[in-house]
Every structure is written in structure tokens, then in C-alpha cells.
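In response to reviewer comment 3 from the previous cycle, which asked for concrete evidence that the modeling workflow produces usable outputs, we include below a single protein chain processed end to end. The sequence was submitted unchanged, and the resulting C-alpha cells are shown without manual editing.
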Amino acid sequence: MKHGPKPSPPRSARLFAEPHPPAAPADLHTAQVDGASRGNPGPASYAVIVRGPNGKTIFEQGKYLGIATNNAAEYHALITALDYAAHHGIRRLRVRSDSELLVRQMEGRYRVRSKDLKPLHERAAKLANHLEYFTIEHIPREMNCDADVLANQALDRTGSRAFAAPPEKQNTHTSTRRIRARYVNGALIPTEALEVPEGAEVTIEVYPRPKS
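The workflow returned the following C-alpha cells.
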């Protein structure tokens, strides 16, 4: 039985499949990317730092994303770096990330099983394939601290807490919500609906109501 030609993997996957990858070009730009999520899913952000061939930072951004998983935030960081390259004439890009899942999926070593990540992966792969040279590297978290700080600063600026209501019910003018609860048999029982995701951790500040 004859089989049709096997489809070519993305350029990034082909690059990593080569026994001796080509030497990095002289005009290579480098992007550090990172994503953060408090709640996973929960309030999320991403950060991108792009450096020129001389190592000088030419672009950096930390941006609040909304309610998302950490993996989705990582992909948004990658897409932002690729978008920046596309709009600024950068043809050769090296991306560094501490997300093993992101890197291995872009290399073609891991399958993309999440329906939420598939469209993000497809967009990232399409942008990467338009570059003349693209490589993505997994680095330890301590080597990605600059991007990590940017991502967390973006979350801190929003006053993001450990959980959030669905986007359509979020109050963008405050970072906290006050509810009443009754202390019964060693537990605090809310007297109104919380709308908190299952498994979420929350911070409780207790202000006993004075007796009348």
C-alpha cells in the first residue's frame, strides 16, 4: 500500500529535529516570555522582553490578560513576541521560556490536547513559520526572573486577588468584595453567594460585628 507524503512539521520542530542545528545568525533577536495566573484559572498576565542582537532591550511589556490559565498566559506572551517581530521587521528570533509545556508543544514534541490552547498554538506556529529563523528554548525559572517580575507587576497593578468572578460579573473599580458570614461550629458560613471557582483559595479578614 502506498502512502502519501508525510506533512512537514512547523519550522521550529524541523529545527530541533536536526542533529546539528545551524549556527545562530548575527542579526538574531532574543525574546524572554512568561505567563502568570493566580488561581489557574484566575487573574492572569503575561510579560515579554525583546532584546536586539547587541543584548539591548528594545521592547518590554507586562499586561493583564483577564481570567485565564497559566498555560494560556504563556501562549499569549509568545504570540505577543512573535507579533512584535512581525510588525518590526525582525526576521530571526530566539524565544526563551521557563514553560516546558509551551516549548515542547512548539517544538512538536508534545501534542496540544487542550481545546483552549489549540487556537493559540496554531496562531503561534503560523507566526513562527513566517520568520526566516525561529528557535525556542526552555530555560530554568531563575533565568527568566526579569519576565516573571514584569508579569507579576501587571497582576499587582490590577489588585488581583486569589479568585475572581466571571468576566461579565467582574467589578473593575475594586479589587475586593465584602460579604457577610456567620460563625457556626468552628466554620464561617457565608450568608450570600460567593461565585468562587471550585478549589480556589481566598483570604479572609475578620471584623466581628458588635452586639447591639
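The beta strands are 29-37, 42-51, 57-68, 92-97, 133-138, 181-184, 187-190. We consider this sufficient to address the reviewer's concern, and the full set will be provided in the supplementary archive.
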